[in-house]
Amino acid sequence: MSRTLILVRHGESEWNLKNLFTGWRNPDLTEKGIEEAKAAGHRLKAAGFAPDYCFTSALKRAQHTLDLILDEMAIVNMTITRNQALNERDYGDLSGLNKDDARQKWGEEQVLIWRRSYDVPPPGGESLKDTAARTLPYYKSMIEPMVVSGQTVLVAAHGNSLRALVMAIEGLTPEQILKRELATGEPVIYQLAADGSLEATLAA
What we know:
alpha/beta; Rossmann fold; 6-stranded mixed β-sheet; 43% helix; 15% strand; globular
């Protein structure tokens, strides 16, 4: 029984590089991001992981990352479910703005609150709490049952949608998850118990 869950944040996107708030906007990967995704696939394959099923968001940077990982692992005919429940946090009015410009417009302290508080959303957008309220029910209904049935499931998504999953799986508090950084293209691998609780954290 494998019961393995692999989470991978997409590789660096064009807007990561430009220091822009991205959210639900849809830039693709940079050359560095492409290399990060390929490296993730290489590491997973070298460590002997082979997903039975994959999930990703409705955004191309996560989908492209997943395609590159599977190419690197020489996996074809993979069943992939794409769903906006796994999309990045919606940054609302901040989307598309340079983070330095946003600080000039609203003040550094306010932008920091929007970025790093758990339950204060930016104007027209989502807080991390809102993102978790969208992402976790989907995980519980669609992803976790596959994992606990014995399959290896790979999820390629985004920093904040994956943070919501990490928070639930590792039992972290809002304060703890806000300090948790997920690097682009860096696999986080869990082995779950039959009840969906965390059994072990694995390395690739």
